[in-house]
Write a structure and sequence with these properties.
With 217 residues, this protein is an alpha+beta fold. Helix content is 29%, strand content 17%. The protein has one domain (6-198).
């Protein structure tokens, strides 16, 4: 009997697919070496949640999904253009409960820190990514926060993620008291403001964050 792969194990413990039909559009993934792997995963389950909604994998496309599709999440009309060049060459396909993003690049799977716009290598294949998620699901998805928050407040609706009242990279605590449930798109826009305002500052610099409309010229 063949042993299950890590991707198969992740799919087996996850929610029902978010979109009934398998994706037919490969276009967003064709320029990425791991694009075929991501497409195969989405063909088996087109978008899903796992670990009490702590991990959210976007479905590729659909007219009926409640929440963003992979196409929409990667468009320039939601949040990624607010990061400027910090999101160039990346395809965002999943997120953790605190809006840490998982993305494809030319070199594999990266983790994208939404508060700083920084990236770090995570895996050289979707299989290795799934293995890391399964092995370290609490750290990688923020499962404990998702579980505790929903035990106290009820299921987190689609399109909502947990976010800090005080940003983590500015000293905000990783605690329930510092978390609230907000709109995922607006959360990413706020984090883009933080990332672009602080991207060139050395560690330890005192900052005053200004959240305001961007100038038009």
């Amino acid at each position: 009997m063949r042993a299950m792969t890590s991707v198969e194990k992740l799919l087996a413990i996850s929610s029902e697919r978010l979109v009934p039909a398998a994706p037919a559009n490969f276009e967003p993934m064709k320029n990425y070496p791991l694009g075929p792997e991501l497409l195969r995963m989405l063909e088996r389950k087109n978008g899903f949640y796992a670990f009490e909604s702590a991990l959210h994998v976007f479905p590729l496309t659909s007219d009926i999904v409640n929440g963003s599709t992979l196409d929409e999440w990667n468009s320039g009309t939601l949040w990624r253009n607010d990061y400027g060049d910090l999101t160039e060459g990346l395809l965002f396909f999943a997120e953790d409960i605190l809006q840490g993003q998982f993305c494809l690049s030319s070199s594999g799977v990266l983790r994208f820190n939404a508060e700083t716009g920084g990236t770090k290598p995570m895996a050289d294949s979707l299989e290795n990514w799934a293995e890391i998620i399964l092995r370290h699901y609490d750290h990688e998805t923020g499962w404990e926060f998702a579980s505790r928050w929903q035990a106290e407040n009820g299921p987190l609706p689609p399109g909502k993620r947990l976010m800090p009242k005080i940003p983590f990279f500015l000293g905000g605590a990783y605690s329930m008291e510092n978390l609230w449930a907000g709109d995922a798109v607006e959360g990413m826009r706020l984090k883009a403001d933080l990332a672009t305002q602080t991207r060139n500052l050395p560690d330890g610099t005192q900052v005053r964050i200004v959240l305001a409309e961007k100038p038009t010229n």
